[in-house]
Amino acid sequence: FSQLQQPSETKSIIVSLLSRFVLKHAYRAKCRGRGGLVVRSRPRDWKVAEEHKFLLASERPSVRRSGSSACGARDLVVRTGLAGVAAHRRFEEQASSTWIKMFLPDSFQQLFFESSKKRRWAIYAWLIIFISLKQILAVRLNAPRILLPYNKNGGLPSNYTLRILDDDANDCYEWRSEDRHLVHVDPISERAEGCSSAAIVSIVSSSTEKRITKVKAKGRTGFELECDVITDFPFKIELISTTDELTVDSPPESVTVIAKDRFGHQFTSINGLKFEWNVEEEADESVASSDSNVVRLRPHASSPVVDGWALRGLLGHSVLVEPLNVGSCKIRASTMETESVELSTQEAKVHILSNVRVLPSSALRLVRRGTLRLGLTHARRGELESGKDFTVSKEDSKIVELDEKDGAVAITGLDYGEAYLTLKSIHAAFPSIDMQVEVVKPARLEIRISRGGYKMLEEHKSYLVSVELFDENAKVIYPSDNLKVAVSFPTQLFYINSTTSNGTWYVVQALTPGKGVIKAELKGIYLKDSSLSKEYELQNSLTVTVCQKIQIFPPFTLLPSDSLRNSSHEIRLLASGGTGNYHWTIYTNNELSATVRYDKEKSHMGYLEIKKEGDFTVIITDEENVNFIASAKVSVQPVIDVETYPTVVEAEIGNVLILPVAFLAYEDKERKIIRKFDDCSKVEPTVEIIEKHVFIYDKEPHVPAFGKGCRTLQFRCKYPGHSRINVYYGPENGNENETHKTTTLLSCFKNLKPVHPVRVAVLPLGASMEVAFDGGPRKWPLYKTGHYQNLEASNPDLLDIEIVRDPIRYNKDLTVFRVLCKALGENTLTFRIGNEPSATNPHPAKADTSIKVVCSHPHSVHLKLAQKQNKKPKKDNIVKVPFYGEKLFSVDIWLKDSMGRKLYNISSLNIRWSFSDHSLAGVPDSKNGFTTHANAAAGYTKISRDFKELKMTGGTGKLTVKAEVLGYRKDSFEKAGISEKNELKAISGSIDLDLVSLRDIHEDMYAENDGEKQERGEELTNLVDEHSCSFPPVTCVPLHKSPCTRSPVNEL
């Protein structure tokens, strides 16, 4: 096995090796020192095996007879007929592992590899038996044994055609006979190789003894089938036919000879025996005819068993009897058992009747005063006329009355009794026909329903309901035309489609489920004067139940055959309708390929198990009405293609995208109808993610199929972006041409959120700001023009909005707009982002978020000294800031509206600055206004602070810095297109600063050299915002009187 390359070769060798092993060629032998299993082998087999490289010459097993006390170096040797195969005890580990994994389930694989060597051999044996029996039971001949006759009389050899059935591998077989002098095998060549799947078996011997031989068919895989051929001569022959009555000009009737041996066994074929056919005719002299023959025998060339005599235009074992004239005949067939002994059949009598029939019947019963119309019909001419084509006469009787009018004859029953009529042809075209009429008294009536007479009916089906009259002897009375029968049907259950004039025949349709009573009553008989005679009054009723239509769900199921390698398909089918008690049956060519089981107490559920590829039909019938029948088809086919049907292809990071996948197969291969499998959960595809940093493929947990798919794949988003997903499927060990592939595109995006501002922004008139949003669906690569980014205002008249585009922006998920205040008021800005629906993105993702932008006048001014936050704990609320001569410092300014909200971007306001003491500080550029710091590193402009730079000129003392808002800047209004009607009330704000000595800040640093410190003339500047709760007013005193331990020099 280690030298075998293909699994198919391995399987073929196993089947070939063990089919004979299981049947007859193995026997046990005791080995010295260890147990073993020895199978007969011959040196000729070894030689063939060496040629096929299955057995090395140096490894020939030493095999002795059954009584031997020792065995050779190998424990298992199997004879296969044409090629011997040695199964080595010491398999190479890799080859044996592959072999076991190919045939054994996972649980048995674990048992095998964990078992000891002896236990492994036991598993090998059971595995071999299983594979062999499975193959034997699957492939079969159309007849396991046949009985054919000898050819004694120089006729043709009787033959029979053997065929291979249920061979899915489409193997080619070589046929041979074990006794060529008795049986000859002629293969029906269908291929150029000379092998075939059918052969004609013929008997060539003329021996008189019963003999048995075999015909064998051996496939190229080594698998062999056998058919027992029994040869004998017939002991008895018989004639069989469908009827013994024929009418002139009717189609011919087949009469066939069957033969049996002395034990009563019927011969399979006698198409080679020569028969003599004898016909004795008795013609009807009353009928004039140009041809005196009653019948004619013809060869039956189209019989089920091909007759060699019929193909030659001669009479064989089956003939056709063609009726010619009215009369009768006796037919007999015979064959020669020996030269002097004849073997004959019994005579079969056949009656040839006229092709004219009496309407309604030649024998009938009438009620008294009942009337009916008589007629004659010819097979070729149709209906005949009275007086022109025939005459009617009766015996002198007062039982019936004849009334001839307009070429028709009507009879009326006058009194109880029997009457006889004669219908005679005027032109002697047919013999006279006798007719019997019996006038009786009705005793009862019955209601009959078609389709078996069941009282359980099915909705939406049509039924024939008839009312029949019976006499005292339970004989049916013909319903005359003048009868009056009334039938009432439940109107909610039935609809009457049609009826006859006498009310004895109805065509009704069952409407809805329910239970009701059908009532019938014989009212009487209409007389010639149109009066109603109530001589007979009978009635009866019938309770019926209308049931729902019986159905099986699902009616059609398509399953993949590829998954049968791992396990069989198990399907649950549900039945509904009828009475609720069902019988389940499955129809298939191979009984072992599928089975159906059900519980009689819960018969509405049927469980179907399928083990092979093919088409299967499940049929259910109702236990109380066999006419309630329904069927469902289950087809198991190979995968021919794979498709994806994405519904949602975009998702936020952390969420899961569901991708429906459909594996396709032929629903109808002849008409090329393709559809998806109903369940392909056992088919495992290969998934390839191109951008692996964007998605993760989650195999678990299993998600049920939905939409157009029969299997669902799920992918988890972990990074924004797009990625192609390739889904492959191909059979194991298949070539690349059998691999199916489909590709789809999926996308991940960040959660949408506002980043600037986060919630609310307040602006003065004429000022603008950049509004930024991060996240949301990205542009769909296959339809980029369908991407939209919209910012909508609840009151658009108050604002101007424009999008800010930056092609080199690093953050591709950032969307920036510029908003300009034009009028006072509050606005809600809603940002919407997404893609329009397209063929590749039918259900695009959408996201939206909102912020508020308020356009308001400033209400208050606030100033603050710009410095780093002091991390050390404050003492006495004193903040000391070092001063080095003419150093610049800045004062931050911000404005608030009437609700205390800080205004963003005050560049549209005109601000004037002033100082209480110009000797302590001043403005470097001698200009009003302020400076704005903005940062655009994040992809949008964000104002961090508005401030005014001041210059310290020297000295200590108190300094007040004041900022006053004079109004809006004219140039800002002109640029924004705002009228100057918006007047602003002047507002202002100030900050008080104290300049103190540096010695007062760091007393500890200058305690030892106090004099030197004072000579250096250093001063401290204490700048305090009186309007800020964080920086209350402080006072500074000389360092040697009031030490300060806070605010180091480097914390400005």
Could you characterize what this model shows?
The protein is mainly beta. It folds into eight domains: 140-232, Immunoglobulin-like (Sandwich), CATH 2.60.40; 236-284 and 292-353, Immunoglobulin-like (Sandwich), CATH 2.60.40.1080; 356-440, Immunoglobulin-like; 444-547, Immunoglobulin-like (Sandwich); 551-638, Immunoglobulin-like (Sandwich), CATH 2.60.40; 641-749, Sandwich (Immunoglobulin-like), CATH 2.60.40; 753-855, Immunoglobulin-like (Sandwich); 860-996, Immunoglobulin-like, CATH 2.60.40. It is 8% helix and 45% strand. The protein has eight helices and 75 strands. Strands 14, 16, 19, 20 and 21 form a five-stranded mixed β-sheet that branches. α1 packs across α5. The longest helix has 22 residues, at 117-138. The radius of gyration is 54 Å and the shape is elongated. The two termini are 89 Å apart. The model is unreliable at 1-13, 15-108, 873-881 and 1004-1052 (pLDDT under 50).
Structural descriptors:
mainly beta; 5-stranded antiparallel β-sheet; disordered C terminus; 1052 residues; 5-stranded mixed β-sheet; 8 helices; Immunoglobulin-like
